[in-house]
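Re-running the complex after MR caught last week's input typo. The corrected sequence lines follow. Everything else is unchanged.
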Amino acid sequence: MNKSHLELSQVGMDFPTPNGNFCALENVNLKINEGEFISLIGHSGCGKSTVLNVVAGLLKATKGGVILENKEVDEPGPERAVVFQNHSLLPWLTVYQNVELAVKQTQKKTTKAQRQQWVMHNLELVHMTHAKDKLPSEISGGMKQRVGIARALAMQPKVLLMDEPFGALDALTRAHLQDSVMEIHATLKNTVIMITHDVDEAVLLSDRIVMMTNGPNATIGEILDVNLARPRARIALADDQAYNHCRHAVLQFLYEKQRKVETVNQVNNKKSSIDQQAAELPVKASTDAA
Ligand SMILES: Nc1ncnc2c1ncn2[C@@H]1O[C@H](COP(=O)(O)OP(=O)(O)OP(=O)(O)O)[C@@H](O)[C@H]1O
Ligand SMILES: [Mg+2]
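Corrected-run output:
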């Protein structure tokens, strides 16, 4: 049964800089239901990681706050696990031991046998049991990312926070991991907030796509409901009208609506700098959904 369990309320974030306060976020409001898969998308530097870090409790909002199940979030906690873009495994521990460490921290009262079973169960979820005794240096980037996800899941978080989890991976590995994440989400039904720059990834995985305006004073510009039945198959979706409608809506927001704001803001500046920015827009619409 869905209920609104995570709420960002009037979140604002100012960073002190040598030139005075920099307002990164202003009045960010979002209610997320239990089990929802939310993607956060927006141009580089708009404030996506800042939002995620506030929810993770790694940053304290300067205005407003975050409520998880009626409790204010004011520090990191095991009920909000984070997966970063650059897999942060401990290099001297094996795959198994990296996951075990998270289990030991979160399951203090269980027996060794129960913990072993739980580590193996989570490695199975990401199809990594075969490499359990390898060191991080002996496995690929995609495999490291799988272990990072297993480690986060092993903490049984209510909310899984992922900051560009597949950003450093090639298209094929990325597609495999996207499928794994969809499978895991269907099984565990965790609430997920995932940051991505990839429009196809956002549409394929999400229940809603939260699109952020450009900073400073960034906020939520639009929210798109992705009403596509699950399980979702990337090849079938490539020709699906509803899928393409969602994809178009996100592209339009990023490249027309947000780009227009940039152009108006900068029209008094040199035109050449605008052309340069247009050429360097970092958000990509990958072709690997087909
Ligand atoms: N500690 C800090 N001090 C000052 N400014 C900061 C700090 N952290 C972030 N910012 C600024 O806040 C804005 C938002 O940064 P953030 O990292 O959240 O962006 P992002 O959307 O995650 O970008 P990217 O897609 O490139 O990862 C940027 O302008 C950034 O320079
Ligand atoms: Mg970021």
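None of the earlier attempt is carried over here. Residues 50 and 59 are 7 Å apart (CA to CA). Residues 270-281, 286-290 have pLDDT under 50 and may be disordered.
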